[in-house]
Amino acid sequence: MTETLNWIRRSQAGDGEAFAELFNHYKNLVFKTACLMLGSAIEAEDMLQEVFLEVHRSLSSYEPSKGAFTTWLYRITVNDCLNWRRKRRPKLIPLELLPVRMTSILSHEDQMSADDAVWQALRKLNPKLRTVVVLRYYGDLSYAEITEILNIPLGTVKSRLNRALLELHDALDLRADDMCAPAMHPEALDGRVAG
């Protein structure tokens, strides 16, 4: 974090090279989040540009004492993605272009791969539900971090996440008794154990 704070301070003082370092260090976080929220690698590229333009414009207002840089960056990314979705109709692109890796969680044979089935289900969630899933399981953020990023109560985060997971289970046509199987726990959505 010391290196990030150094880049921030230098960027705030007008050092373009420091801002380039900041961009290079955090561009994947922004791209991945935008791609998952928007459902399009092409739109995520545009969003990457938009987010870092906003970061550049508002970096002088960032105060490390009020929260982590990544929390501030996630907040900008999420808000910009939600605004982007409101303004534009989503475009479909081949799913193989998206950097989504998840474990198989389907309880029956399906012609579509498990990754594609889960991704299609995720895309159908409303933006508020999709946002908490993306931040929790793809961003690997804690409930407290999500609360801070979205500026909503902890109970709302948990409620949205629970509702999103239930909708994902329904969309994937999973039986209620399968929900307790190890592969069905929320942490298995992307193959990592969330902390």
Give a description of the structure:
By secondary structure, this protein is mainly alpha-helical. The protein has 2 domains: about 1-85, RNA polymerase sigma factor, region 2, helix turn helix motif (Rna Polymerase Sigma Factor, Chain: A, Orthogonal Bundle); about 100-190, Winged helix-like DNA-binding domain superfamily/Winged helix DNA-binding domain (Arc Repressor Mutant, subunit A, Orthogonal Bundle), CATH 1.10.10.10. Helices cover about 60% and strands about 0% of the residues. Helix 2 (about 15-40) packs across helix 3, helix 6 crosses helix 8 and helix 7 (about 145-150) packs across helix 8 (about 155-170). The longest helix has 23 residues, at about 15-40. It is globular and about 55 Å long. The two termini are about 20 Å apart.
SSE blueprint:
Blueprint: H1 2-12, H2 16-38, H3 41-58, H4 69-87, H5 114-124, H6 127-138, H7 143-150, H8 154-171
Compact description:
With 195 residues, the chain is an all-alpha fold. It has helices spanning 2-12, 16-38, 41-58, 69-87, 114-124, 127-138, 143-150, 154-171.
